[in-house]
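Technical annex B. To support the medicinal chemistry partners, we prepared a structural model of the target in complex with flavin-adenine dinucleotide, based solely on the information shown next.
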Amino acid sequence: MADFDAIVVGSGCAGPVAAYELAKAGRSVLVVERGTFCGAKNVSGGRLYTHALRAVFPDFKQSAPLERRITRERVSMLAPDAATTLDVTDELLGTDRYESYSVLRARFDPWLAGQAEAAGAEFINGIAVEALLKRDGRVTGVRAGEDEITADVVLLCDGVNSLLVPQAVGAEPLKPSQVAVGIKEVIELPEQVISDRSLCAEGEGMAWLFVGDATQGRAGGGFVYTNTDSISIGLVATVSDLFESRAPIYQLLEDFKRHPSVAPIIAGGKVVEHSGHLVAEAGYDAMPPLVGDGVLLAGESALMCLSAGYTVRGMDFAIAAGQQAGRSAAAALAAGDTSAAGLAGYRKALEESFVLQDLKTVRRFPHFMETTPRLYNEYPKVARDAMRALFLVDGTPLRPVRKAMLPTLRRVGYLNLAKDLSKGVRAL
Ligand SMILES: Cc1cc2nc3c(=O)[nH]c(=O)nc-3n(C[C@H](O)[C@H](O)[C@H](O)COP(=O)(O)OP(=O)(O)OC[C@H]3O[C@@H](n4cnc5c(N)ncnc54)[C@H](O)[C@@H]3O)c2cc1C
């Protein structure tokens, strides 16, 4: 007989939710997390769309450590000396259906793990699972430190770049073009100063994404999220592109923080946290099989993440996948069949949910971003030059915008512009 009905590897977003579902179904479940506490090793820019969390914990707002409700969206095209910004406010952003909150993982993850623990899941922290136990090709447990622990089903919720996924389902390791590196700082500032600088009411906040000079013309982008009394600021840059960059990513972040359109929002703040983490960019087409005999994959271990310049979303995918993984594992345990066939309902459930549908809808976007360098190095300058033609006045006679823009558009090439536009629209 196995030591546990189920073992969950990793306690980020997917793991605790899967464990909660299994414990709620009356199953014995062990969560193994390598961090000394849940959330110790985890990084997000920090914006959580709450629809998936609400589906698991309808009363989450009573106790979850949420920072600010995001009611202002900004997207900036950053040239070295200018920013062209789309600034969106919309009453719908603050409604239950569409709402999102900034969160800090070092606070949010322990809360999420606490929900699973309260439902009866057991946790071991501070030990990494080094290998999967297998018998006749079937996963039968994990090896963690000196211990071998067995279970009828193992749920891999161990995040991006999992060392266990290749052992479980034989997936290829990620290529440098399929993964980005993200770095982030949390900068403390008084609550009212943050509200004033981001033009947000009390308790409300801003999500601000940047493309262009944030990564100095390379694939990726920058982000700023306002928390209650701090600001999360960082960059995400594709690893293969970073190889060719002259500057290391920490230097890119320093330059980004000094950019004239960014510096005022963090001025006078104190850096209280640094972190770095990989982000899956490969998307739907590179996803590994989601089940094998005795094993399921949920969250970024299965590349369930959308990193697309105007947004980074992985937490709501991981929470929803964790919920379905936990439920499917519990159903398979009840039926006495945790083989790949017995667990096949998991993929079907995700196909019917936003998880696989959204990832499929934007499946071409990572390729579009990777193969359109003009997005990062030319178009922010095109936007800048168009704004200059509109807004710069020095008393010399005005030139019509279309004439003023001619040299810029010729430099980019009309055909390139048309091709990129059509490619971008198709990718979305
Ligand atoms: C810079 C950056 C910005 C981002 N911004 C956002 C954002 O604003 N909004 C959003 O929705 N998403 C964002 N994401 C993506 C989001 O953070 C992830 O998609 C999400 O955390 C995935 O959840 P997960 O549970 O699959 O994995 P994780 O949250 O990474 O959790 C995996 C857990 O497994 C543990 N683990 C790993 N290997 C082992 C092992 N062998 N043994 C034991 N434990 C192990 C880890 O310590 C970790 O706790 C961002 C990511 C980065 C890096």
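Notes passed to the chemistry partners:
The chain has a mean pLDDT of 93.
Residues 9-15, 32-35, 41-48, 128-129, 157-159, 182, 184, 234, 236, 277, 279, 299-301, 305, 312-316, 318 surround flavin-adenine dinucleotide (CB under 6 Å).
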